[in-house]
Structure formats: C-alpha cells, structure tokens
Amino acid sequence: MATYKDAGVNIEEGYAAVKLMKDYASKTFNSGVLNNLGSFAGMYELPKMKNPVLVSGTDGVGTKLKVAFDMVKYDTVGIDCVAMCVNDILCHGATPLFFLDYIACGKLNAENAADLVKGVSEGCLQSGCALIGGETAEMPGFYKAGEYDVAGFCVGIVEKEKIVDGSSIKSGDVLIGIESSGIHSNGYSLVRKLITNLDEEFNGDKIGNVLLTPTKIYVKTVLSLIDKFDIKGMAHITGGGFYENIPRMFKNDYVAVINKGSFNIPDIFKHLMSLGVEEDHMYNTFNMGIGFVLCVNANDSKEVIKQIEKMGSKAYEIGHVEAGGKGVCLR
User: Fold this and answer.
1) What's the chief localization of this chain (predicted)?
2) What is the pLDDT of residue 132?
C-alpha cells in the first residue's frame, strides 16, 4: 500500500514541528489575538480608532537563506523575514498588528523548522506584532533536503489622517539616516558570488556569521518619533539601495542630496568594495550602513537624532531635499 510517507511527506514530523512552533508563536500573542494556533484561520480584533486604515506588506528573505543553510544556522533568518515586512509598512506610519509566515521545504526537519519560527517569533516581539498563523509545506522533489524557503505577510494599522505619504515634503527638508545592522536581506546573490568561503575570518568571527546578522527592526524607535515630531516621509533601504528607495518617499518631484561622508560605512561593505564592486553600484544594491531614512523639518533634525540615539541607535543627518526631478544625488 502506497502512503504519503512513501512519497516523501512525513506527517508525524509535521506534527512535531507544529508543536514546537506553537511555543514560539504564543509568546507574541497580545490582547488583539482571538484564537490559538491550530484553527483554520487567525483572528485579530482591531483596536478602536476614529478612521482606521489597514496597511499590509509581504516579503521573503531571498538568497540570504543559502548562507543560513551552509552555516547550518536557522534561528536568525526568521527575524529578517519579519523585518522586511514590518519596516516596509512602517514607512507609512503603520503600527504592525499581526504576522503570518510561510515555510516550504523538500524534507521537513521539525527542529530546523521550529528554529526558523523561533526567529519569526523574535522579530514579532521586536516589532510588537502577533504571530497568529502560518503554513509549513513539505514538497519533496521541489526543494533540496536541508533547504527551506521563508516568506511572510504582515498587517498594520494607522489613522487615516496620520498616514505618512510624503505630501508635505518641501525643498530644504532634512534627511536623517538610522544605522543598519549590516547587509540586512538584500544583495545576497552578489555577496555569495564574491564570498565563497563562509568560514574565513572577518573582524574576529567567521564571515558567514557576520553575513547572517539579522535585519534591524525600526518599528518601536520610529513609532515613538511619529508621536513627537512631524515625520514627513520615510524610506526602508532595501533592494535597490539608496537610488531606488529614497525617492519612493517623495510624492512630488524632488531630489535627495546625500552627503557620502556624513555617516559610517560598516567594514563589511568596504570589504565587498575591495572585492571589486564599484562604489556607485554599492549604493544601488546595498544599504551601506543606513537601513531607514526619515524626512523632517530642518529645525527638528538635531532633536530627532538625539531621540533616536537615546533609544539605542546611531543616526546621522545624511542630506537634504531639493526641488527637481525625482532621484538621488550622491556628493
């Protein structure tokens, strides 16, 4: 008699994975969560607001996952998955409410899958959202054994009158950059082409571990700033680097003038340049040490930076806004 297990799908291992995952997910539950994992859908009660707008985002971890597989380290990339989603919806002033994940593999290992969800749980805790559900798909013959794909989806909320959409940005406004934690989750196809030995020493550690540094989550820091200052626009520096992401905050035709010497470039980016990547291409691929950018009034700049640093992150005044065609000018 043919069975599902004969076809490569181990239902018992799936049950074991779900049991482990529930422990991590339950740590993220807050007052909005109405049911436990295991139902057919997650339910979340919206907070009372005058004119609420739901803001959603979805993303994955990309080929950074390949580094995790090669290093046999599964518990950090889940943070990246959450970060890529919540940092995006944050750009419009949204508070993350809940998150769902999707994990696919060729052969399920309960402990590895649980480590992935452990990271997702940690990302949710850092951003204040609840992990209310997900899907684990075992797909033999589609993925190699030991390899997984991880993606996620988050929903946040913002009062309609408080949506940050760039409409009030004007010439002379200042751009503030908040430090990144490293490469984050973009550009890894190029990184893996340049760095083939993940065990090589780099700044006192294996370079593979440095590459797995999780994406910084900016939610709690930025939401506290929105309550105190007029934050006119925001950009999450992801794929496309400075050139593609900073102009996304502009509703009208403006140029972001960036002073290259105004912030610290982490050593890992300098190392990539030493391996043959031209500087202009670096700024069009990576965050270069700035993971999130705010646009504020010039007279608020110093106080905003001061508040960011009080909350434990380094921030810099990296440039300003000028009238003109949409784009970025690096000086």
Assistant:
1) cytoplasm
2) 97
pLDDT (tens digit per residue) in 155-201: 999 999 999 999 999 999 999 999 999 999 999 999 999 999 999 99
Average pLDDT of the chain? 95
Count of CA atoms in the C-beta half-sphere (13 A) of 241: 22
pLDDT (0 to 100) of residue 4: 66
pLDDT for 12 equals 82
Token pair listed for 242: 């400075």
CB-based contact 78:116 (threshold 8 Å): yes
- As given in the structure block, the two tokens for residue 270 are 């300098």
The full 3-state SS of the chain, as one line of letters, equals CCCCCCCCCCHHHHHHHHHHHHHHHHCCCCCCECCCCCCCCCCECCCCCCCEEEEEEEEECCCHHHHHHHHCCCCCHHHHHHHHHHHHHHCCCCEEEEEEEEEEECCCCHHHHHHHHHHHHHHHHHHCCEEEEEEEEECECCECCCCEEEEEEEEEEEEHHHCCCCCCCCCCCEEEEEECCCCCCCCHHHHHHHCCCCCCEECCEEHHHHHCCCCCCCHHHHHHHHCCCCCCEEEECCCCHHHHHHHHHCCCCEEEEECHHHCCCCHHHHHHHHCCCCHHHHHCCCCCCEEEEEEECHHHHHHHHHHHHHCCCCEEEEEEEEECCCEEEEC
pLDDT of the residue at 18? 82
